[in-house]
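User: Can you predict the 3D structure for this chain?
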Amino acid sequence: MPKYRQTYTLFKRGRFFYYRTYTENGVRTTARSTGCTSLSAARIHCDKLFKDGKLIAERGKTFREYAAGFFDKDSVYAKDNDLSPRSVAIYSTALEKNFLPLIGERQLTDITYSSVKSLRQTLLDGGLSLSTVRLKMAALHIILKSAYLDGIIPKDPFSSLRNLKIRERHRDAFSLEEVKFLYGTSSSEMQKSLILLALTGMRVSELAGVSSTNVKEGNGTSFIRLEKQYIDGEFAPLKTKRPRDIPLSPLLVPLVDGDRKSLRKILRKELAPRIKEIPSWKERLLCPHSLRHFFISSAKSYGINYLKVEAIAGHSLQGMQETYTTFHVMDLSDIISWQEWAYSNIIG
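Assistant: Here is the predicted structure, written as structure tokens:
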């Protein structure tokens, strides 16, 4: 005769007893707490649940079932946390390409501290960088922490997991001579974008969202009213979520023309190969973003107040919001003077 399987089983975890039920196929379901500290009380509790028809006897969710659509741009999590399109893309990619193939069919309750640690090592062994693995594991932590808060798993598997230690590496700025070299070896259209990136401090995604309609004028001074960025194929709020005005020398105004939505792709195709001709580019982590670093370092070296420089660049510093509100475009004439000095030196 086949062995009789009772309706539920009890086991102790910490101070409390938990129960598991079984599906029609004999598959064990997710453990749930009885809230009882003695075995007899736990049995009475489960018997009452069974009598009342409340004893849960459905299969526990797999990771794939729980995580489905978790990072979609219209998901509850994405909306509640105001995720940017780029964050949605990064987390979704980690879920689809890394975690679903590895643990998609695993029961949520079977994902433990040890399995999370082993999974992280698998990603590292696959050749991913420490920073990339840390970012991907952050996506997994979001899902598992949500499962814990929903009461599906008894503990957050990440609670005892130490963060990966990443040695800080700072991206260098281009020198004036290097910007001149890049300008001199670029096409005329690329030259416009290069000058704007180097002399306004805009991020690539910010310049990609700018057109001539963003150029305004106040008290005889031209400026770019920067309110959004273009990233991953759509317009999105700025990184700081706060609009800012960037002063423009009259020399730069004609350069703000056309549609730059494909700027990132063009930079990768045309500018990246030129950057690789610069000695030690790899060790210095040089890339198109280094043009923004050129703006910051060169403008400060020119003698411009660092708060003005950081404000125009859109950096979030302590007390910056209060300080920036006191800056008006007409207060930034020294930035325009620097732009004209740098422009004349770059184009030779």
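The two ends are 94 Å apart (CA to CA). The longest strand covers residues 8-13.
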